[in-house]
């Protein structure tokens, strides 16, 4: 059973990101403030749920949350500032997109940077412990998946509709065969035998 609150603050915001381990596309974050009375028996860490359940939960979260924000940080910025900084930047942007300023932020994982003097706490595997982080994980995942589906049409040979930019064997093979696109992260080891890509 996931818990509603970690702190004693009423306006507690959960934040999480999706796409950190991908070879292509953005890292996407969401931030969610749930009402003090909120229940949902299906809601869980997005990785534990099927695509169908995530799609079912997305409009419920958007409707029932006091406020939510979603933000992408794209591959060009990931290459400039690295994926960890890009993940934190995406979470900052998502929190800044909220219509209500949170009094406290709970973050999935173990790394975060202070934002606008709002107190925060990082929670390892927080998406499986707190409803607001689980809700944020679902929004981050569904918004990012929708973006990857939209660019799939441009480069169908990488099958982003299926792999969403993650380093599957099929995706790596396509990179080997066709090279990389403008959506690929150039700073990542795209193939096992490449420690660094030379351009």
From TrEMBL:
Catalytic activity: Endonucleolytic cleavage to 5'-phosphomonoester
Purpose of the protein: Endonuclease that specifically degrades the RNA of RNA-DNA hybrids.
InterPro entries: RNase_HII, RNase_HII/HIII, RNase_HII/HIII_dom, RNaseH-like_sf, RNaseH_sf
Family per record: Belongs to the RNase HII family.
Name of the protein described by the UniProt record: Ribonuclease HII
EC number(s) recorded for this UniProt protein: 3.1.26.4
Cofactor details (free text): Manganese or magnesium. Binds 1 divalent metal ion per monomer in the absence of substrate. May bind a second metal ion after substrate binding.
MF terms (GO), sorted A to Z: manganese ion binding; RNA binding; RNA-DNA hybrid ribonuclease activity
A GO BP entry: mismatch repair
Domain RNase H type-2: 10-199
Domain of life: Bacteria
Gene encoding the protein: rnhB
Binding, a divalent metal cation: 16-17, 108
Keyword Metal-binding in record: yes
UniProt keyword terms in alphabetical order: Cytoplasm, Endonuclease, Hydrolase, Manganese, Metal-binding, Nuclease
Source organism: Confluentibacter flavum
CC per GO annotation: cytoplasm; ribonuclease H2 complex
Coiled coil in keyword set: no
